[in-house]
Amino acid sequence: MKKLTVELRKEFVQWFQELKYLSDVQILRYIQISHEASSSCAIHTFVDGSKDAYAAVTFLRLEKNDRIEVFLLAAKSRMALLRGATIPRMELQAAVIGARLTNSVVEALVWGNVTTYYWSDSTTVFAWILREENWFVFVGRSKSWWEGPQ
User: Fold this and answer.
1) Can you tell me the distance from the alpha carbon of 93 to that of 89, in angstroms, rounded to the nearest whole number?
2) Cα(59)–Cα(73) distance, rounded to whole angstroms?
3) What whole-number distance in Å separates Cα of residue 100 and Cα of residue 74?
4) Secondary structure of residue 128 in the 3-state scheme
5) Residue range 26-82, pLDDT digits in tens
6) Which H or E run contains 130?
7) Which of 15, 19, 94, 118 could form a cystine bridge with 54, CB 3.0-4.6 A?
């Protein structure tokens, strides 16, 4: 069995003593906005993908008088498959979960008309979204699956 070094013990004691400061940390989760004020709100969703994972995060941007306030509403992430996941595909997956996340947030807020913005750094995703061809390569295994039961 190894003994703790003096330096490591000192770091641990300092970390342990600083734990008490965590009780001072506050993260506000309640957002109270009147229906009238919702017209000055916008929802911004940021998405990104890499070879290891993809994620989406949704923020509420509120303009009040001469101030802008931003609130984190929701976030979602997923790990990549072990193999076969290309970065463009991961970026598209991020866009998909971002759109779904935004939709669920808008439904939960029960706002009929809210401006939404989607942000991605992938030009490939933008090109794929604008395509009018079938997406069966991405969403299904074969064309017959895409067309449904025969």
Assistant:
1) 6
2) 5
3) 11
4) helix
5) 766 677 776 666 668 899 999 999 988 999 999 999 887 888 888 889 999 999 877
6) helix 123-130
7) 94
The two tokens of residue 69 are: 């306030």
Instruction: Return the ∠ at Cα 136 (arms to 48 and 101), rounded to 5°.
Output: 35
User: What mean pLDDT, rounded, does the chain reach?
Assistant: 82
Between CA 100 and CA 107 the distance in angstroms is: 11
Q: Quick one: pLDDT at residue 38?
A: 62
Residues recorded for the chain: 150
Burial of 96 (0-12, 13-18, 19+ CB in 10 A): middle
Residue 72 phi, psi (nearest 5): -75, 125
- Residue with structure tokens 């193999």? 83
Q: Is the dihedral of CA 64, 68, 72, 75 positive or negative?
A: positive
Q: Cα–Cα–Cα angle for 35, 97, 115, nearest 5°?
A: 30
- Map tokens 């989607």 to a residue: 118
Nearest alpha carbon to residue 115 among 58, 6, 38: 38
Q: Which residues have C-beta within 8 Å of that of residue 105, sequence separation ≥ 6? A: 43, 58, 73, 74
3-class state of residue 62 by DSSP: strand
